[in-house]
Design brief:
The protein is an alpha+beta fold. It has one domain. 30% of the residues lie in helices and 34% in strands. The protein contains two helices and seven strands. The strands form two sheets. Strands 4-5-6-7 form a four-stranded antiparallel sheet, with no helix packed on it. Strands 1-2-3 form a three-stranded antiparallel sheet, with no helix packed on it. The longest helix is centred in the C-terminal third of the chain and has 18 residues. The relative contact order is 0.16. The mean pLDDT is 82.
Length: 88
């Protein structure tokens, strides 16, 4: 996901994550997921990406969960790195 802001389109998706896309299409467009969990009881696959969780059922994207804390944590990391980058 290259955009700084999230564009939520009801019934369609978030940014370039579109509902009903397969895992392979999402992987081609956005690269490898940070973490992949397979839940055999719920029969779903959950991909964790930067600030977002994607849930696939029957090989289709059915749910997108946006993590509220992801942006402040990312900004804190970046701001802590800036002084180090400027001194080198």
């Amino acid at each position: 996901m290259s955009s700084k802001f999230l564009t939520i389109t009801p019934y369609l998706g978030v940014n370039d994550y579109l509902f009903s896309e397969s895992q392979s299409v999402v992987k081609k467009k956005n690269g490898e997921a940070f973490k992949i969990e397979i839940d055999n009881i719920m029969k779903q696959v959950k991909e964790t990406r930067t600030g977002i969780e994607l849930i696939f059922i029957k090989k289709k994207l059915v749910d997108i969960v946006i993590k509220k804390r992801s942006k402040p944590l990312l900004m804190a990391l970046i701001s802590s790195m800036i002084p180090k980058l400027l001194t080198n």
